[in-house]
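Weekly sync, protein design subgroup
Attendees: M.S., D.O., the rotation student, P.L. (late)

Item 1: inverse folding check
M.S. brought a backbone from last month's batch and wanted to see whether the design step gives back something sensible before we order anything. D.O. pointed out we never logged the input encoding, so this time it goes straight into the notes. Structure tokens as presented (378 positions):
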């Protein structure tokens, strides 16, 4: 079977912040009223609320070429940014807030109320945001098998995205404090290996029966077959500062899914990876991001993160080339290597104080800065 360019979509979660204090602020409903429809609504793009009233999500429609992904991401960010400005707020893309304010659960949503009640203090101040990538795989058994193949690479996706150094208003020492916050929920991290869709469904149903997740749509694994769409959904990444970094996550994730499908078509099963090593690799990626060592999933030891990136590119290079994405990914990775992770850039801005970090993030979120190289846009 030949897999050419798979469809892809991206869901980005954003924080809302007060432009004077820099702290997160409730205002999602007001902002969404101002924003009205997603600029690519006709293609399936949409906005909606999240768990807390300081969060909103923008989802692209179903995309093919990366320049389509890029246009939809930038269009949504610019539209939401303008709506936030009109509502007296800043739109900020970061995995955790620099300065968390006290915000309530989004009102009028029974599911959010149930989640808040179930997790109590763990959810009460869960002001974290991610960048979720959906890649079209319409065979659910194939989607389960693909997720098995993705397991070794999920920590590297996290390292590429690390953009949440702040926890509870201070530098946490981590590159992704979001991942540490998420680890407090049951079933977080790299998913187990599942032999079939039925086995996956039984596992999720057990978690519901045990009272630790609200419903089958609520697992916290970093990758899964989507419970709503015919896709593989990868949720390893922090909310990234720039639209270009979200494009990078989309391209690399699609490359990983394509490589997995090619392996499966050739009869190659997912390589075994120890669950404890997976957990160590996720923690290490959260701790260091791109600025420290990583954990090699097969050698089971620390190695330079640059080596993990090289092996990732070797693994997905043919898939990227076939899809026409290789040049774009190489350019984006080169920029990220020079600029450093989002966490590093936040720390570099911190000499001006926390509000300077918030301002920098707001500017990068809406693209009011010199754009980085985008060879996929000609």
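Designed sequence read out in the meeting:
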């Amino acid at each position: 079977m030949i897999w050419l360019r798979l469809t892809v979509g991206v869901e980005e979660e954003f924080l809302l912040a007060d432009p004077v204090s820099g702290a997160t602020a409730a205002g999602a409903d007001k902002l969404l009223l101002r924003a009205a429809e997603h600029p690519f609504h006709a293609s399936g793009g949409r906005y909606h609320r999240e768990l807390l009233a300081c969060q909103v999500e923008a989802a692209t429609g179903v995309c093919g070429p990366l320049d389509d992904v890029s246009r939809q991401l930038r269009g949504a960010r610019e539209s939401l940014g303008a709506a936030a400005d009109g509502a007296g707020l800043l739109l900020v893309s970061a995995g955790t807030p620099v300065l968390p304010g006290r915000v309530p659960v989004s009102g009028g949503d029974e599911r959010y109320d149930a989640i808040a009640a179930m997790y109590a203090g763990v959810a009460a101040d869960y002001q974290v945001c991610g960048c979720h990538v959906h890649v079209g795989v319409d065979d659910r058994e194939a989607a389960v098998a693909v997720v098995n193949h993705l397991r070794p690479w999920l920590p590297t996706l996290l390292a590429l995205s690390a953009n949440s150094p702040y926890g509870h208003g201070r530098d946490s020492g981590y590159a992704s404090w979001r991942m540490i916050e998420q680890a407090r929920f049951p079933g977080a991290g790299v998913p187990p290996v599942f032999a079939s869709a039925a086995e996956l469904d039984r596992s999720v149903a057990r978690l519901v029966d045990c009272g630790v997740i609200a419903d089958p749509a609520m697992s916290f694994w970093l990758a899964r077959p989507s419970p709503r769409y015919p896709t593989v959904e990868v949720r390893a990444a922090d909310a990234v500062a720039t639209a270009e970094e979200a494009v990078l996550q989309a391209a690399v994730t699609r490359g990983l899914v394509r490589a997995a499908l090619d392996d499966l078509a050739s009869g190659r099963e997912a390589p075994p990876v120890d669950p404890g090593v997976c957990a160590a690799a996720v923690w290490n990626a959260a701790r260091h991001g791109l600025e420290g060592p990583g954990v090699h999933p097969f050698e089971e030891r620390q190695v330079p993160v640059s080596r993990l990136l090289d092996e990732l590119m070797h693994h997905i290079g043919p898939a990227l080339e076939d899809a026409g994405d290789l040049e774009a990914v190489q350019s984006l990775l080169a920029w990220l290597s020079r600029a450093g992770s989002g966490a590093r850039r936040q720390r570099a801005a911190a000499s001006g104080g926390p509000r300077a970090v918030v301002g920098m993030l707001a500017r990068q979120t809406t693209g009011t800065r010199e754009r980085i190289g985008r060879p996929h846009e000609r």
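Discussion: The first helix runs from residue 28 to 35. Residues 138 and 366 are 33 Å apart (CA to CA).
Action: P.L. to compare against the previous round before Friday.
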